[in-house]
Amino acid sequence: MIEIRNVTKTFGGTRAVADCSLNLEGLKIAGLIGPNGSGKTTLFNLITGLVRPDSGEITFQGKRIDGKLPHHMAALGLIRTFQLSRVFPRLTVMDNMLIAPQRQTGERLLSLLFQFPKVRMEEANHREKAVELLDMLGIIHLHDQFAGNLSYGQQKLLELGRAVMAEPKMILLDEPTAGINPRLIQTMKDMILKMKACGQIFFIIEHNMDVVVELCEKIFVLDHGEKIAEGSPLEIQNDPLVIEAYLG
Amino acid sequence: MDLLLHLSIVIAIYSIFALSLNIEVGYTGLFNFGHVAFFAIGAYTSALLTLQGVPFSLSMIAGIGFAGAAGFLIGIPSLKLQGDYFGIATLGFAEIVRMILQNQVAWTKGPMGLPGITRPELFSWRFDTLPEYLVLALGAAILTFLVIGFLTLSPFGRVLKAIRDDETAAAILGKNAFACKMKSFVIGSLFAGLAGVLWAHYITFISPGDFTLTETILVLLIVVLGGKGTLLGPVVGAVVLIFFQESLRFLRLPPEWSSILGPLQQMVFGLILVLLMIFRPEGLIREKGKEKIDRD
To answer: At what angle do helices B213-226 and B36-51 cross, to 10 degrees?
Structure first.
């Protein structure tokens, strides 16, 4: 779905991403690994429009998306999560979920006034779906809590649920299992696999090799902003370059 | 009795003023330190037009409209700024407005102010006496409360709160933060204009000295004390603060105290604020949503 061609991004003197080319066409779950500071999050930022590439191009479903603004990406069907979860702390868990659906009638002032029955119907539908998802994530009992009061792991689950609520074509997860307890890691993996079975496509940055190997069909490896390898989990685990840069 | 009516009218007008600031500060996280400018624009526009013989129904609409338009124009550059920088920009804007009112003597009579503003007449109803004016001010306050309540409880209001909490995360979810902040800012400015119109026609004399930073601080205090980001908060805050501010007149203090009354009031204000921030930082009314009880 996503194709990245010769993308470069420099911050001052450091090349965060250097002439990177990745093709995610036809992959259900792709993984992105690499040592700290290898440019993984920058690559996500480039894809989601938070930073602009110096050169190269990024296409999503055949359309150029580099240079578009972050809020255009969601409409195109690209939603990401963050390494340090970014839920809305002073919104309830339920409101965090309800914010995500795209093109809501009730978010436009004129339609809010003139199409109020439609707004109420949409809200009811979204709420039903949110309840279902929160139940799957095991945080339904927290629905009326401020999201900022959830534990870190619960916030990461909520962020995943929120991404799913947006019904994107692709979800980019930035270290979904970093810093959370083993039981929640299991919930997170189950959720991702369940969504995959429903046809959801993912692109995941992850340090936990067990998770990467279990989930991903194909893994891309970055080091110092350059792609040093790509292949199946088995190939990557045996690649001498990868072992030297990362696993070893 | 007259004092009580006067108090109610001032509370109603300040409720509108505070509700209009709350949609910006409490719901959208826009720390507008120049809100009084839109109040002033509403007051001056309507006052100047009625002094030229324009009927109140039109001058009121013009006052509200001018305040909203000013919000839109000042929003274009300033809403691109983040947090404190936005606050400073709005602070500067309010000073510019006050300086124009003070120095553009040909239009505004400068520091002399505008005396003799008429009490309004709407659809052949005259709002001349205190009870009549209270009906008008209360009606406007209820309307403001309902409109702002409807907006903030809607999906639109939810987006504003999301932008307040984390602008980047809201953008990633497809929300155009700039456009939403602009809508919030213009709505706030429109209602501040309405409050200004009502103020001018109630007091019947306005001068640039009425629209200083002190007014902005008072209305910010009302919002914070009442509970920002809640619907009832600004109203409760207006009742408590305006009542307190004016209630010192009820006390039969000896005349020789009058020189210390003003500073005393400011000191008690300060004390209330300090105590409140220590013991109840979220304000008198809390935002809906539970604090954490159980953790996994």
So the answer is: 120
Chain A residue set in contact with B, beta carbons under 8 Å: 48, 50, 69-75, 79-80, 82, 86-92, 95, 98-100, 102, 104-109, 112, 119, 123, 144-146, 149-151, 153-154, 162, 166, 184
Q: Which residue has the higher pLDDT, B253 or B22?
A: B22
Q: Which of A99, A123, A160 to mutate to test the interface with B (most CBs of B within 10 A)?
A: A99
Q: Are B251 and B23 in contact (CB under 8 A)?
A: no
Largest CA distance in chain B: 69
Is residue A53 helix, strand or coil?
coil
Q: In angstroms, rounded to a whole number, what is the distance separating the alpha carbons of residues B51 and B266?
A: 35
Tokens of B160: 């504003």
Asked if pLDDT for residue B231 goes beyond 70, the answer is yes
Closest residue, chain A, to B166 (C-alpha): A88
pLDDT digits (tens, 9 = 90+) for B89-126: 999 999 999 999 999 888 888 888 898 888 888 877 88
In the three-class reduction of DSSP (H, G, I as helix; E, B as strand; rest coil), residue A105 is classed as helix
| Closest chain A CA to residue B286 | A90
The pLDDT of residue B256 = 73
B263, pLDDT greater than 80 = no
Q: Is the pLDDT of residue B293 over 60?
A: no
| Contact assessment for residue A99 and residue B159, using Cβ atoms and an 8 Å cutoff | yes
Cα A160 from chain centroid? 8
User: Does residue A16 contact residue A54 with C-beta atoms inside 8 Å?
Assistant: no
How close, in Å, is residue A120 to chain B by CA atoms? 10
Q: Is A3 exposed, middle or buried (0-12, 13-18, 19+ CB in 10 A)?
A: middle
As averages over each run of 10 residues, the pLDDT of chain A (248 residues) reads: 92 90 92 90 93 93 90 92 92 96 92 91 96 94 94 93 94 92 91 92 92 92 91 89 75
